[in-house]
Amino acid sequence: MDIQKTIHEQVSGNRVVLYMKGTPQFPQCGFSAMAIKVLEACGVDQPFTVNVLEEPAIRQGVKEYANWPTVPQLYISGEFIGGSDIMREMYESGELQKVLQEAHAPR
């Protein structure tokens, strides 16, 4: 299995993708919990999520895919957005809501 291909298919095949530790219902770290709360505050109630704790190859592969060393990682419409700190900053400025609205606009 080509992990980079799998990751590419996940991020390009879903509008909102979050690679996280745990699940939305049971996040396994504070950063993942914050990422889910930020998405929920933006009205995203069912993002496509990948629990990297259950998929070690993806846990490493996603770091290489985005050239970003940590998880969680958010992708919107195939574009890497960032981790939980960037998500929080974008939410507080209103930028994340705009990006999500654009992603959900009819194509």
Q: What is the topology?
A:
Layout: H1 3-13, E1 16-20, H2 30-41, E2 48-51, H3 56-66, E3 73-76, E4 79-82, H4 84-93, H5 95-104
Question: Quick recap of the structure?
Answer:
This protein has 107 residues and is α+β, with helices and mostly antiparallel strands. 50% of the residues lie in helices and 16% in strands. The protein has a four-stranded mixed β-sheet with strand order 2-1-3-4, sandwiched between helices.
Overview of the molecule:
This protein has helices spanning 3-13, 30-41, 56-66, 84-93, 95-104; strands at residues 16-20, 48-51, 73-76, 79-82. It is an alpha+beta fold and 107 residues long. It has one domain: 3-Layer(aba) Sandwich (Glutaredoxin), CATH 3.40.30.
Name a few traits of the molecule.
alpha+beta; Glutaredoxin; four-stranded mixed beta sheet; globular
| Structural Rg | 13 Å
CATH topology name, in short, is: Glutaredoxin
The main sheet comes to: 4 strands, mixed
CATH superfamily, called what? Glutaredoxin
Strand content: 15-25%
Share of residues in helices: 40-55%
**Ranges with pLDDT <50 over ≥5 residues?**
none
Strand order in the largest sheet:
2-1-3-4
Measured distance between first and last alpha carbons: 31 Å
Number of helices: 5
How many β-strand runs?
4
Known CATH architecture:
3-Layer(aba) Sandwich
CATH class division: Alpha Beta
Series of secondary-structure elements, N-terminal to C-terminal: HEHEHEEHH
Round the mean pLDDT to the nearest integer and report it.
94
Going by helix content, strand content and strand pairing, the class is alpha+beta
Number of domains: 1
Sum up the overall morphology in one term: globular
